[in-house]
Specification:
alpha+beta, 11 strands, Beta-Lactamase, 3-stranded antiparallel sheet, Arc Repressor Mutant, subunit A, single chain
């Protein structure tokens, strides 16, 4: 933040002095609007007395840039979710782990399916990995700075296993979120990675490319297309249901689902999932029950989009 204690005395303010005097301004502050290292512009604030932005007042005003930047990014993400159309962009990243100083190539296939945000800048990522990739993931967990711990669970087939990765927010997730995008899926094949990102159709794809290449310099965009999701598609119904859930309910439901809690027999216990989320088992149970009620209410209540889909399917 740059402040001018007295616009009538500061020689650097000469180009704007007449206008400031006209409106009775005595001091000003220029606050960068920034969120997650993305700059959206500059917010100028004025006061009718000299030195208005010194001390505690200045500290409070300085936070406006991050608050406004966060609001802009959140609005962009919401528009992407609510729009019938979205931009889907795929990037190819060769030898993805070399960015983190790892020399070995990961053999096999790894699919990152979902991420659940936790407190303290930590995410739980869920996915599947073929047997050749499992040991490689264990080794990389020790080598990659933002990877904290890895849990392997039985999968749906003999050829692959589910995994749960606890990590600080990945640089790529942070970069994509900063421009209002969402990392939809990441697939690694023998060390190379294909990343699929969804964002608002009005978003600046060049800015997205620069953000991705800041993290992975060798990344290149391979496809860009507009995706249409009419109001009655499963994807849109899923988004509407998610909007009904609190952040904690979403985290509990997604963690339980991707960990195999709803499989029969269960692939993870409630105690294990609660430990992953850093909460007590009764708290997990409470979040799950409330989330399940909202999900079932959205599906089964009169006028629910999912129920309309079901009636259409049964009548066809």
């Amino acid at each position: 933040m740059q402040t001018t204690p007295d616009v009538r005395e500061d020689p650097q303010y000469e180009p704007w002095r007449d206008l400031a005097v006209k409106y009775g301004f005595h001091s000003s502050a220029a606050i960068p609007i920034v969120h997650e290292e993305t700059a959206y512009g500059v917010l100028n604030v004025y006061a009718d007395r000299p030195g208005a932005f010194e001390g505690q007042e200045g500290n409070v005003i300085a936070q406006l840039g991050e608050v406004v930047g966060h609001a802009i990014a959140a609005t962009q993400r919401k528009r992407a979710l609510e729009s019938d159309e979205m931009a889907e962009v795929e990037f190819h990243v060769p030898n993805v782990f070399s960015t983190f100083g790892a020399s070995d190539t990961l053999e096999g296939r790894v699919v990152f399916e979902a991420a659940v945000p936790l407190d303290d800048d930590i995410h739980l990522s869920f996915g599947t990995a073929t047997d050749p990739a499992i040991e490689g993931l264990r080794d990389y967990c020790d080598a990659i700075p933002h990877w904290k711990s890895l849990t392997i669970r039985d999968g749906d087939s003999a050829e692959e296993s589910r995994f749960e990765l606890r990590a600080s927010v990945a640089p790529l997730i942070r970069a994509v979120a900063s421009i209002g995008g969402r990392l939809e899926r990441a697939v690694m094949e023998d060390g190379d990675c294909t990343v699929t990102i969804h964002l608002s159709p009005t978003a600046d794809v060049r800015q997205l490319t620069e953000a991705v290449q800041d993290v992975f310099p060798d990344a290149r965009m391979v496809t860009r297309r507009q995706v249409v999701h009419p109001a009655d598609t499963p994807e849109r119904v899923s988004q509407e249901i998610e909007e009904e859930l609190t952040d904690r309910q979403q985290a509990a439901l997604k963690a339980a689902y991707y960990a195999g809690f709803f499989e029969w027999p269960r692939e993870a216990t409630g105690e294990e999932i609660a430990e992953s989320l850093g909460i007590a088992p009764p708290t997990l149970s409470q979040h799950l029950r409330k989330a399940e009620k909202k999900v079932f209410s959205s599906i089964l209540s009169n006028g629910g989009g999912a129920e309309r889909n079901g009636r259409s399917a049964r009548s066809s």
